[in-house]
Amino acid sequence: METPGYTYGTAVVARSPLTLDEFAQMKQTALFSDDDVQALRASRALVEHRVEEILDVWYGFVGSHPHLLDSFTDAGSGAPVAAYLGAVRQRFGRWILDTAQANYDQAWLDYQYEIGRRHHRVAKNRTDGVTSTALVPFRHLFALIVPVTTTLRPFLAAGGHSAAEVDRMHAAWVKSCLLQVTLWSQPYVKDGDF
After folding, report:
1. Is residue 135 within 8 Å of residue 121, measured between CB atoms?
2. Domain 21-188: CATH superfamily, name plus number
3. pTM here?
4. N or C: which end of the chain has fewer CB within 10 A?
5. What is the rounded CA–CA span in Å between residue 54 and residue 154?
6. pLDDT tens string for the chain (194 positions)?
7. Where are the domains of the chain?
8. d(CA 87, CA 20)
9. C-alpha to C-alpha distance for 116 and 168, rounded to whole angstroms
10. SS3 track for the chain
11. How far is residue 127's CA from residue 49's CA, in Å, rounded to a whole number?
12. Residues 58 and 147: beta-carbon distance below 8 Å
C-alpha cells in the first residue's frame, strides 16, 4: 500500500534523538510489556479491514470540533484544506496498521520523531506543501488519546473476543498511544528537557 508522504521503513529527515534503550525505559514506565505487544498484534485482524470506518469516526470527531479542525485549515482563509485532510487520513490509516503491528525498531522510532516534527512548526505542512496553521497545538496531542482509544474500543469488541481479551487489547492501545504521543511531543519540549 503506497501512502504519499509516508516514510516509515525508509530514510526520514532526522534520526530520533531518543535511543532504543531510552524507549525501552519509557515502555517500562508505562507498564508496556510483551503481553501488550501480543494484544496489539491480535487487534490487527480486527482493525485492518475496518480502517476507513475507524477513520470516519475519528475524522467525524475532529471535524465536529473547530479547535481541532483548525490544524487542517488554510492559514489565510481558515477553510479546511480537503487535499491535506485526505493525505493525512491516508497516513493515519497506515498509523493504525503500524500500531497494531507493534514493531519497535530504529526505523519505527525515527518515524515517531518525524511524526512529531510534522505536528510542530519545524516540519508541519512541508510533506504536503500546504499553507495551513504553523503547528498542532501541544495541548491537543495528549487529550486526543482519549477519543481515539475510546472510539476504537467498539471495533475491538466486534470480533467476538471475550470481555477480558477486549480489555487487554484496549489497554495495549491506550499504552501504545500514550507512548507514541509522548514521542511526538519531543519537538515541543525545550532542548535538554525531554
Report:
1. yes
2. Globins (1.10.490.10)
3. 0.93
4. N
5. 10
6. 566 666 665 656 688 999 999 999 999 999 999 999 999 999 999 999 999 999 999 999 999 999 999 999 999 999 999 999 999 999 999 999 999 999 999 999 999 999 999 999 999 999 889 999 999 999 999 999 999 999 999 999 999 999 999 999 999 999 999 999 999 999 999 988 98
7. 21-188
8. 29
9. 27
10. CCCCCCCCCCCCCCCCCCCHHHHHHHHHHCCCCHHHHHHHHHHHHHHCCCHHHHHHHHHHHHHCCHHHHHHHEECCCCCECHHHHHHHHHHHHHHHHHHHHCCCCHHHHHHHHHHHHHHCCCCCCCCCCCCECCCCCHHHHHHCHHHHHHHHHHHHHCCCCCHHHHHHHHHHHHHHHHHHHHHHCHHHCCCCCC
11. 27
12. yes
Q: Cell digits for 120?
A: 510542530
Closest by CA position to 148, among listed 66, 72, 70, 57:
57
CB-CB neighbours of 36 under 10 Å: 22
